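Translate structure to sequence.
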């Protein structure tokens, strides 16, 4: 702050001398112009020396920071590109592995289906055999019933053919005796 006020005072004095010299005349005026220029150039130089280095330093830091960030981004991009290239190189192996796994799964599924089909055929065959056996037993029972019915009917016909009124009377009396 003191330097700025000194500089302002010096500038005002130089301007005052230049103004006074202008009124006095010729040679002196040229000298004051040079002095005024020197003061102005000195002041501008002082301000440049005072103000520009921090500005340049801040700008240098910003540029350095941006360069570091750019380098980091570039390294990340290179790492991602390398990862993509590695994946692309491994994709053929993965495709081959997936194909062989798919073939193995298909074969296992076909085997499972064949076993399931064989089990279903065996179950259906066993069920058919049971049904045939049951039908045979049922037919045998029906045939036995039918034969028994025919036998009873035939026996009834024979008994009716041999039955006379005297035989019937004798049978009734024998039955009555047994009841008593």
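Result:
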């Amino acid at each position: 702050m003191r330097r700025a006020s000194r500089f302002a005072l010096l500038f005002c004095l130089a301007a005052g001398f230049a103004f006074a010299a202008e009124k006095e005349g010729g040679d002196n005026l040229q000298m004051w112009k040079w002095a005024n220029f020197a003061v102005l150039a000195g002041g501008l130089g002082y301000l440049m020396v005072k103000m520009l280095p921090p500005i340049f330093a801040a700008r240098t830091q910003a540029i350095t920071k941006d360069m570091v960030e750019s380098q980091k981004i570039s390294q990340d991009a290179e790492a991602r590109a390398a990862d993509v290239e590695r994946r692309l190189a491994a994709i053929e192996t993965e495709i081959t592995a997936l194909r062989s796994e798919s073939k193995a799964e298909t074969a296992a599924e076909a085997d499972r289906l064949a076993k399931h089909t064989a089990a279903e055929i065996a179950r259906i065959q066993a069920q058919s055999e049971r049904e045939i056996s049951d039908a045979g037993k049922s037919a045998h029972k029906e045939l036995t019933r039918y034969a028994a019915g025919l036998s009873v009917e035939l026996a009834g016909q024979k008994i009716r053919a041999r039955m006379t009124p005297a035989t019937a009377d004798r049978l009734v009396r024998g039955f009555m005796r047994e009841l008593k």
